[in-house]
Design brief:
Blueprint: E1 5-8, H1 13-26, E2 31-35, H2 43-46, E3 49-51, H3 57-67, E4 71-74, H4 80-85, H5 87-107, E5 112-114, E6 117-118, H6 142-161, E7 164-166, E8 168-170, E9 172-174, H7 187-198, E10 200-203, E11 211-215, H8 216-228, E12 240-241, E13 245-247, H9 249-257, E14 264-267, H10 272-279, H11 287-293, H12 301-313
Parallel strand pairs: 1-2, 1-4, 2-3, 4-5, 5-7, 6-8, 8-12, 9-11, 10-14
Antiparallel strand pairs: 11-13
Helix pairs in contact: 1-8, 3-5, 5-6, 7-9
Bound molecules: 2-amino-3-ketobutyric acid (AKB).
2-amino-3-ketobutyric acid is lined by residues 79-80, 118-120, 143, 170, 172, 183-185.
Length: 314
């Protein structure tokens, strides 16, 4: 019998691309896209879709019963900037959604669970440069707090129950297929849309704000590589540091000007996302991912910029 994979939060920025890639690898019928919203793109026709609310246990249980999945990717989450507007809702979705999925994964003998963490687990007292896997972690956004707590739960379910949960701390993810989901790093996507539309962009982060970033193709490949890695290679059961590149808005503007010479970058004062960005690392040391499952990014800032502009121009 074929094994089935569920992707919960399939319509988001990551899910949109992950579902397509998983369907290419495992076959469309065996990857079930789940979300609380119907997809507005072609995955609806390319394979099964189910309405799923991770906070509704009856609904979630019915999906586990129907598909008896062997793998789950739980992507449903409220990100850093949106989370600050409704902290209790962000905590509820990010935390209880994870716990519901972990419990049903145990009940239904799911073989592997994937759950994304983020660089938001680090905080103002974490080292800023080449932030290492293990260091001071004092996140001060509700998103970061929920991701750090979630990491501890993932490791706990692995240690106590033997559940094979795997996780990555994503940096800012840059993509063109689906809109970003309300994060602090979203400027690095909006900038490309506005560069093409009006040759100018008003950045909510200041010129010097360096953040770790990654092009979505690398993120999808890395995620699937981690899920395919032999279990005995994995030394981290909380979440792996993971990175592709790092840059500031000013450096990205210089790169964009190589393609759109009259591009202008302006800065808006006093955006609450600046404080969030200032509390996060500037760059990440992902040597555990390199060592354990041979992680190596393919996209640097120049190649990512070329790809973003080429696809969005279409
Ligand atoms: C955000 O900015 O909230 C996300 C993230 C880094 O997790 N992109």
């Amino acid at each position: 019998m074929h094994e089935t994979t569920l992707v919960i939060g399939a319509n988001g920025q990551i899910g949109t691309e992950l579902v397509t890639e998983l369907r290419n690898i495992y076959g469309s019928d065996y990857v079930v896209a789940c979300d609380i919203r119907r997809p507005d793109y072609d995955t609806k026709n390319a394979g099964p879709f189910e309405f799923v609310n991770v906070l509704d246990k009856e609904n979630l249980k019915a999906i586990f019963q129907k598909y008896k999945p062997s793998a789950i990717y739980l992507l449903a989450a409220i990100l850093s900037a949106t989370g600050e507007q409704n902290p209790k809702l962000a905590w509820d979705l990010n935390m209880n959604g994870l716990l519901n999925v972990l419990d049903f994964a145990l009940d239904f003998n799911v073989k592997k669970v994937y759950w994304p963490s983020s660089i938001a687990v680090f905080g103002p007292n974490s080292p800023k440069e080449h932030t290492s896997q293990y260091c001071v972690m004092d996140p001060n956004t509700v998103y970061g707090i929920s991701k750090l707590a979630g990491e501890r739960w993932c490791e706990y379910y692995f240690n106590k129950h033997g559940l094979d949960v795997r996780s990555i701390r994503y940096p800012g993810l840059i993509s063109w297929k689906a809109a970003p989901g309300g994060g602090t790093t979203d400027y690095a996507i909006h900038i490309f849309h506005d560069a093409l539309k009006k040759a100018s962009y008003n950045s909510f982060l200041n010129a010097e704000t360096r953040l770790p970033m990654m092009y979505m193709d690398d993120a999808i490949r890395g995620t699937i590589e981690l899920m395919e890695a032999p279990v005995e290679k994995l030394s981290i059961r909380s979440s792996y540091n993971f990175t592709g590149m790092d840059f500031t808005p000013e450096e990205l503007a210089i790169e964009i000007r190589k393609h759109i010479p009259d591009f202008k970058l302006n800065y808006s004062a006093h955006d609450p996302r600046q404080a969030i960005a200032d509390s996060w690392p500037k760059s990440i040391d992902d040597s555990f991912a390199q060592r354990d499952w041979n992680w190596k990014p393919e996209f640097d800032m120049a190649r990512m910029t070329e790809e973003m502009l080429r696809h969005l121009r279409k």
